[in-house]
Backbone:
């Protein structure tokens, strides 16, 4: 199966499995999710990223030993993705790099949407000259803010602001947007490609999984 | 539907539709294929590429007017892909760039396999530091050569040569390899990811098509 790493600690099974469940529903591949220990707030600065890196590697190595054929680090910042690749022999996919390379396949100007202050470095590096602007929906600091009618309107308004500046593709820099189905809302309202980070990691991971299974 | 451009002129319906048929079978999306006029030998040098470019743009524009939601230039050299993007508003996917970005999502050293003398520039540019070596199976100058048992052995031998040099992903620089099912043979023999150019363009094109259809 696919091993999916959540980079925040949770005992809530629904939260733990939400990305894996989406990938199973979209691509009909088995996903085993697990999370790193002792970081209930996840990764939010350099210090917490340094703290998480060896835990991500340890969990990925364990998942490989457990039989996972493809690993996914399900976070738009791609934490420890390069490091994990040096420690396992199975393919390792990061949400941020998968989404950004998918945008590059389209080759049009990109607007990035997220809820943090800045775009993950890995995404800026990959998007390069296609990157136009980053935006955070007004008043939104948590994905649950987007579940209200007002939050939804703010997300659509933010996407429209990006489009006014010439972007033709939207990329999410937040895996929380996947859980609330924001991509579907924006696609319906605006009729432009929206690259959802969990959809992108799942698209490539499920393709590799099927290959390596001999399907 | 998806509009798929073949960059060689053919009156043979089987040849014309072979990439579209593969994409339909793999991803269950409708594909309309058409080819550029008056180039039965396709693109094989700078002069024939210059000759083909305006024909690709004209065909792509016609396909967009005809209702195609996504266009695919089904050639590993990505001819006229950037030019076509400036002339239509729908997404344009190139086989070479889609396959190369897909390899970058995996992030491991890449070996490229093809039947021409050199790797398309667009693929080298994208693969960058991940590119290790290009190889052409010995004695193979035409994809039909690979349909013989000897040709098949040569392709497997070429892949093994790449792996001995440390590559962990194989990317095809020839869409003819898709038609003969070479990826499946190599995956079975060698158990490493093989990025097939038609599979890669179809993976992204079908995803975008479904998005823009509101699925």
Residues:
């Amino acid at each position: 199966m696919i091993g999916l790493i959540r980079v925040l600690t949770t005992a809530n099974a629904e939260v733990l499995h939400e990305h894996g469940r989406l990938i199973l529903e979209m691509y009909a591949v088995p996903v085993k999710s697990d999370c790193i220990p002792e970081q209930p707030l996840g990764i939010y600065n350099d210090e917490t990223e340094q703290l998480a890196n060896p835990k991500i590697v340890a969990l990925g190595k364990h998942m490989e030993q457990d039989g996972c054929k493809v690993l996914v680090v399900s976070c738009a910042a791609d934490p420890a993705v390069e490091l994990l690749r040096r420690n396992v022999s199975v393919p390792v996919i990061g949400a941020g790099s998968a989404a950004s390379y998918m945008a590059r396949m389209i080759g049009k100007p990109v607007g990035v949407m997220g809820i943090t202050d800045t775009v993950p470095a890995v995404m800026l590096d990959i998007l390069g000259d296609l990157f136009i602007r980053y935006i955070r929906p007004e008043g939104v600091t948590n994905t649950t803010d987007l579940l209200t009618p007002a939050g939804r309107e703010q997300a659509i308004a933010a996407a429209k602001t990006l489009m006014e500046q010439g972007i033709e593709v939207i990329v999410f820099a937040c895996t929380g947007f996947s859980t609330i189905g924001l991509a579907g809302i924006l696609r319906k309202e605006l009729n432009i490609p929206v690259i959802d980070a969990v959809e992108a990691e799942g698209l490539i991971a499920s393709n590799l999984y099927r290959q390596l299974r001999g399907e």
